[in-house]
Amino acid sequence: MATPSKRRAFNEREDILLLTQVSVERPHIARRGRIMDVWDSVARNLNTLDEFNRRHFDGKRAQARFNLLLRDHKERNVASNRPSGSDEVVDERVVLLDDLSSQVEEAKKEEADRADSEAEAAARAEESVVLVREEEMKSQGKRKNREGDDEAAGGKMPKVLTLMNDANKSELELRKFMFEKELEEHQKERGASQGTRGPS
Q1: Among 9, 28, 54, 158, which is least packed, fewest CB within 10 Å?
Q2: Where are the alpha helices (DSSP H) in 48-91?
Q3: Is 46 left (phi over 0), alpha (psi -120 to 50) or beta?
Q4: Nearest partner of 11 among 53, 46, 45, judged by Cα
């Protein structure tokens, strides 16, 4: 059975290498859907360095370590009330974190602004759809008012059906009349033919 590998803490040099690679590839400004691809690229590039000796280091671990460094940096700044760029002696890691912290905040602000503008555009589009729908409903109402006489009589379809029904009644009456005439003529012919035969 293999012995589990112990976690070892990142040293300052590994943190600086990570922060440098993040500042080069800038995954915090990657577009949505490509963020993890950029973090994977950061991890791959770090794994090619001899100084960065971490097995199984991937994009998720790179992102997690960066977020942890960033959070700790912000907490230290708040705790010490040290504004960015003060005269205090700072190491390379702090300089990189100051720069990346401002980049991340700016990227978050831009993302929020973009989301707001998309939401506003969607709201405007929805309002225009509602206006078009209302205008169409008004237009339908005007059309119905213009056809009001037809509507009062039951609309066009019932009128057509009534006309067809009247035509069928007329045709039926004509057939009935013609049938009665044929029947009369037939009876006359029969009576005439019986009259010529005479009594037998």
Answers
A1: 9
A2: 59-80
A3: alpha
A4: 53
Q: Sort residue 90 into left (φ over 0), alpha (ψ -120 to 50) or beta.
A: beta
Residues contacting 58, CB < 8 A, separation 6+: 40, 43
The 10s digit of each residue's pLDDT in 19-65 is 999 999 999 888 888 999 999 999 999 999 988 888 889 999 999 99
Q: Domain-by-domain residue ranges, the chain? A: 12-80+90-116
Paired tokens of 76: 């230290």
Q: Which residue type is seen at 130?
A: V
Token readout for 114 is 């973009």
Please report, for residues 82, 88, 184, the alpha-carbon distance to residue 77 in angstroms, rounded to integers and kept in the order given: 5, 12, 120
43: CB partners within 8 A, 6+ apart: 57, 58, 59, 61, 62
